[in-house]
Every structure is written in structure tokens, then in C-alpha cells.
Amino acid sequence: MTSLPLRLVLLVSMATLIRSSSWLHFAGNSETIRELIQPLKLTCTFQISKNDSDNDSQVLFMSIYHETKRVIASISKYQPMATSLYPSVTKVQGHIYHSNESEDSYLQVIWTHPKLSESGKYFCLAHARNSTSQNNVFDADITINVTKSSTDDIAVALSYIQDRLDKDGVDSIQISRASPTLPESCRDVISSEDRVVVTLASGLKVMCDTKTDSGGWIIFQRRINGNVNFYRGWKEYRDGFGSYSIGEFYLGNENIFKLTSSKKYDLRIDLEFNNTKYFALYTRFEILGEQDYYELQIGGYSGNAGDDLTNHHNDKFSTYDKDNDKSKSGNCAENWKGAWWYNACYDSNLN
Fold first, then answer.
1. Which pTM does this prediction carry?
2. At residue 125, what are phi and psi to the nearest 5 degrees?
3. Hey, which residues does 217 pair with through a beta bridge?
4. With pLDDT > 90 as the criterion, what percentage of the chain qualifies?
5. One Pfam family for this entry, by name (predicted)?
6. How open is the CA angle 238-240-246, to the nearest 5 degrees?
7. 54 and 191 within one domain
8. b/e burial code for range 263-286 (CB count within 10 A of at least 16 → b)
């Protein structure tokens, strides 16, 4: 049986955080919203002034997140479609313009029927690079208060909805029976882009690498700029975290288990350091289920990065709150501020 490819990507970069800037603007349609009735709209804009010669920055990506660290939406120069993994968001849109286009890059999210839990402080981050190749992260915030709707508010809203239904007629909503065929794997995806986010036939949303080593790779871990914290607990590594548009994410051990238990997969690890690229290719890759602590099964190695994973064959996954390693000197994940298939402790530690 032919193996399918999985890919892990790591890059290293540095950025300066700028918490106050006239270039980044973050606003809502109102700071006080009525629950379920009044829509909530948040818009983050990186403004370019034609008369401002100091602002020659190219926006690389933007993200909006809640004070609870939930990523609400994001967009990237390299993944230009704005996306949201937050289930209650009704609509997300945005565009990142090139610095010479004199247009304002923006990211916008809309909740048609916001809940009380949408209250709190929201932050917008814009990662930009200026003409001297310096990376800067711009930060802005806004506080939203979603208030409980009164009985009268709900009655007025229901009356409005009923009037609209009467005007539109009972046949106004039709569901098309035709549905496009979804890809079984990234090998079925053809794109002019190097990376593209797709939904597989299984319902899993993944990022596909369509170019590396003939393409067809599912990227299950990607680190390029340090904007996502990878020192996390068991549940987050089980379920996955991060954002495709930001470019940093972990697909989740449960998703990787389901993928690798259904078909045969190869594993490719790509790293870049000081403008030099390295890779490691393994001819078999599988992790077992949660009851087996997502134990790693790995095959033969080739590449120029060095074989630093074979020693972790048959090792169990560990996080700071779930120690499954073989070390007698404490929790490797806690000691080394990571999460990995630690032995005692590691030859590799990519999370």
C-alpha cells in the first residue's frame, strides 16, 4: 500500500511588539451589544497613509483573539483567505494588500447573534515587516459588553423575523442536492499555491503542501514566527490549537491518530535555520490512540537533518500535566518547556 505524506515545518524569526501605533485601528460597531438580537462586528485595520513616508511596512498577517486566548480569526499574506475556527462567528472577511498598493489591510469578524460569553476584551495583532526587513508586531484592543436582552427586545425581534418570513414566502429557502466531491487526502489537491487549507472528505480541515517533494503533504505542525505558544497541556495537544492563517498550529494528536490509523503515512520534517534548509524523511509514521498515550511508531530515515527521531520510536507523548516519559529526573515536558514523545529526555524536541 502506498504511504501518504504528513509534514512538520519549523522556521525561526524574531519580532518587536509595538503596543501603541497610529497605523493599527481596532473598533466595533458598538461597545455594548444586546444578546442574540444585535449583531457584533469587529474590524481591525492597518492603515497606510500616502503622506506617511515612515510607514513602509508590509503586513504579513493579522489576527483577532479574545482575552481568554481564543483565536477568533486570522488572515495571512501567504494564506489570503480570512478564516475562523471559532464556531459562533457568522462571517469573517479580510484582505492583506501589498505595501505599494496604498490600500488598508483589514480583518473583520461578525456575530449575527452574539451571546453573553462574547463579552470581554478583544485584541488585534498585525505582524508587519518594514523596508529594512525588521519584523514588528502591532497590538490594539477593545472591550465589548454583551448584555442580556429583555423580554420586550425579544418580542420586537421575533415580530420583525415573522414579517420577513411572510414577505419572503415559505419556498424562499432551497437546499441544493448537488455537493462537490471533497478530497480524501492532500494528494487529491491541486493548487498553484504552495500551501492551501482544505476540508477532507472526513470533515477534517487541514493545510496541504502542494509543492514540497511533489506535494500531497498534510502539515500537522508548523512553527514559523513564535506567535503561538506551544507550551500547552494534554487536552490542547489532543484536540489541536493555533491558526492556519497565522501559520502556526498543531493539528492535534487525536486527529493525527485517526489519519495514521486509517492509512499508511510517511513523515517529513522540514527545518530552516540561518537561511539553510534541512529535512528528515521517515518511511512510516503512526501514533496510537489516547489509551496508549499517543505512542509514536516510526520507520526508516533519510535526509540531511540528522536522525533525531528514531530514538523516540515506541515512546509515549508527554505534556507538562501528563508525564509519560522514561526519565527518572522529573517530567521532561516540564523541565524542557515542551510537549513531545520524550524518552529520557530527548534527541529531538520540536514542540
1. 0.53
2. -115, 135
3. 209
4. 31
5. Fibrinogen_C
6. 160
7. no
8. eebbbbbbbeeeeeeebbbbeebb
HSE value, Cβ hemisphere, 13 Å, CA-based, for 143:
1
Same domain assignment for residues 201 and 318? yes
Say whether both 212 and 331 belong to one domain. Answer: yes
- CB distance 124 to 64 below 8 Å: yes
The residue with cell 518594514 is 130
| Most confident region among 3-7, 81-85, 284-288 by mean pLDDT | 284-288
Q: Which class for 334: exposed (0-12), middle (13-18), buried (19 or more C-beta within 10 A)? A: middle
**C-beta atoms surrounding 227 within 10 Å:** 20
Q: State the DSSP H helix or E strand holding residue 270, giving kind and residue range, or none if neither.
A: strand 265-273
% of residues, the chain, pLDDT over 70: 81
Domain assignment present for residue 155? The answer is no
Q: Which helix (H) or strand (E) holds 253?
A: helix 253-262
Residue 310 is classified by DSSP as: G
Contact between residue 285 and residue 266 where contact means Cβ atoms under 8 Å apart: yes
Distance, in Å, from the CA atom of 318 to the CA atom of 234, rounded to the nearest integer, reads 8
Domain carrying residue 124 = 16-149
> What is the structure's pLDDT at 176?
32
Note whether 120 and 66 are within 8 A (CB).
yes
Question: In this structure, how many other beta carbons lie within 10 angstroms of the beta carbon of residue 105?
Answer: 27
- How far is 80 from 95, CA to CA, in rounded Å? 7
3-state secondary structure of 348: coil
Q: Are residues 54 and 132 in the same domain?
A: yes
Number of domains the chain is built from = 2
**Residue 229: CATH number of its domain:** 3.90.215.10
**Pairwise CA distance, residues 217 & 268, whole Å:** 9
